[in-house]
Specification:
10 strands, binds iron/sulfur cluster, four-stranded antiparallel β-sheet, 45% helix, alpha+beta
Amino acid sequence: MGIRARLMNFFVNSLATWQFQSILNKESKFSSHKNVIKSNKESPERFDIVLEGVKHYSRLPITSFRTMRVMPSNIKNIKRSLTTIDQNPVVSKKTITDEQLQAFENYAKSLGISSIGYIKLPRKLIFKDKAVLHENVIILSMEMDRDKIEKAPSSETAYMIMQTYDDLGKTSNRLTTFLRQEGFSVQAGHPLGGLVLYPPLAELAGIGYHGRHGLIITPENGPRVRLTAIYTSIENLPIAQGNPHEWIAHFCQTCGRCIRKCPGFAIQEEPTLHENGLLTHITNEYCFPVFLDYHGCSVCIKECPFSRMEYNKLKTQFDNRTLNPEMI
Ligand code: SF4
Ligand code: SF4
């Protein structure tokens, strides 16, 4: 690496560390408040991707200048999700009408949200030492571009992913403003470094089911999604009852394509079941170096049949036993 590149690397690393450290401080301050829902002793530690990259490998998981340019907007919207909590009404509403919920969903869809689920938050899904404002959760998914995922790993894919993080982060903030104006208390989550573990929450909310790569597979876009959440005072959300996508677990047992195609050999044959009931599918120490070296990798998303074929078509073929995942 030349001296200019090294200086640039040092400057960007220092700036990102400083910015993310300021986010951590804001999160800590928020967690120390009295009337918040805190993590419990079963809660997992958050893997802070940017700080881990700088700490252990002296570089960011950002491989092009274009991708780097989206980072400030992401940081701004993470901070905004924390600072706008002060704008909540002093006395908040707790009941939403069918018409208000429909208007919210229509607005969310108009902003590019692909699927919406509702669930009560189990405290063990809040990351260790983090907290949120309410236990009523609206979980949201946004599609990542199919053609760009097909190019993974590439700088084009990495840019699109970072842009999707940013679009979803902004959307989450816009949707909280919408609900706040209706009189509800709300807190936006952000897809980059959220306060809770999103995939199991999305699964509980019934918007998809986890694959062997550990990512949520949704009927609309397979694993080509990013997730975020909104925490709200609304007590009468239509909470999911059961999950219609459990058949994906059986499909995965006949497939295993992500495990075979992972360049870091990071996806475990069998997930690790932790004492708190949570599953780990990926060995971070194997995935992360590849993730850093190859534009955020994302090969596991690209190779999953659900990224390429329609959900219903796969289900029909699976039910009729006429599917060979190797042929997809
Ligand atoms: S991102 Fe790449 S290295 Fe990491 S689990 Fe997915 S395919 Fe494997
Ligand atoms: S690639 Fe196959 S095994 Fe892996 S998550 Fe997708 S469907 Fe499941």
